[in-house]
Design a protein that fits this description.
InterPro entries: SAM-dependent_MTases_sf. It comes from Ascodesmis nigricans. The protein is of the alpha/beta class. Helix content is about 40%, strand content about 15%. Helix 3 links the parallel strand 4 and strand 5. It binds S-adenosylmethionine (SAM).
Length: about 280
């Protein structure tokens, strides 16, 4: 059976936790910067917010970048797995904890809570956003940044038999076995959870992120190339474990789907993108 080093012995979180995945997460951070035109966030942060929480910090790259340009902020990067560097800036600390459990931080405490790409991990978005609200200080900003786990196409170059649709159909089915329902993800889904938790002044930004170098404009062609690099190992990171372990598919079959998807993405004949 396919196995890459996992982040969590209980397999609560199904993505691998090895050097390949850490490199992918750092490249994904670069992709996020391209999407946000070089910014680390959309929230209109002024000066250095005193207390900042980065939820599901991964390699800690966002927390470190934020801490380096906000030396007056105290940044906590929290993750289920201790995969962050031991060297950090003096104002950045990493903690190992499970954000799906009761948060032990002070209530009304954080001035900025940032949560990016934890969609493949959080089962109960109602509870997650309620805990954010309880632990946010009055006037704080909370930023959720998630991507669709599905690809779209605006010009009919993606046939209904596209390997991308096959792949995401399997991934959706696999994740739903973990009670993670990625087809629900939409700006309306996240907005309604934030509203129900009590947040106000909610702003939604939606971006199309190309897979492959098919866009004509220089900016999006570059973004598509970087996205391909993220997805080159990401397709396997998400797909192999999900299809073999959760759906019981033979490794050879799952691997063939992943390989064909990567090949199709690099050929860039299907003008596909995901929504962020
Ligand atoms: C796809 S990575 C995103 C990393 C980072 N946010 C970024 O944008 O670079 C998702 C991270 O969420 C963490 N995670 C998953 N479930 C979690 C939980 N219940 N509590 C805390 N962290 C969790 C994983 O260990 C992983 O590092």
């Amino acid at each position: 059976m396919y196995h890459r080093k996992s982040s969590d012995e209980n397999e609560q979180y199904f993505l691998p936790a090895d050097e390949t995945e850490f490199d992918r997460l750092d490249m994904a951070h670069h992709l996020q910067l391209l999407i946000l035109d070089g910014e680390l966030h959309k929230a209109p942060i002024q000066n250095d917010p005193a207390n900042v929480l980065d939820c599901g910090t991964g390699t800690g790259i966002w927390a470190l970048d934020f801490g380096s340009i906000h030396p007056g902020s105290k940044v906590i990067g929290v993750d289920l797995a201790p995969n962050q560097p031991t060297w950090t800036y003096p104002n950045v600390v990493f903690e190992t904890d499970d954000l799906e459990k009761e948060w032990t931080y002070q209530k009304n405490h954080f001035d900025f809570i940032h949560s990016r790409m934890v969609g493949s991990a959080i089962r109960d978005w109602g509870r997650y956003t309620r805990q954010m609200y309880e632990h946010a200080a009055p006037g704080a900003y909370v930023e959720l940044s998630e991507h669709s786990m599905w690809t779209y196409c605006d010009d009919n170059t993606q046939p209904p038999t596209s390997i991308s649709l096959t792949y995401f159909t399997h991934l959706t089915a696999a994740l739903s076995k973990l009670n993670i329902h990625t087809r629900d993800f939409s700006s309306r889904f996240f907005r309604s959870h934030l509203e129900a938790a009590g947040f106000v002044d909610i702003q939604v930004f939606v971006y199309k992120v190309p897979w492959g170098t098919w866009p004509k404009s220089r900016k999006f062609k570059h973004m598509g190339a970087v996205c391909s690099e993220v997805c080159r190992t990401g397709i396997e990171a998400y797909g192999l474990m999900a299809m073999t372990r959760l759906l019981g598919m033979e490794e050879s079959e799952a691997r063939a789907i992943c390989t064909e998807f990567v090949d199709t993405m690099y050929k860039a004949k299907e003008h596909i993108y995901h929504l962020q």
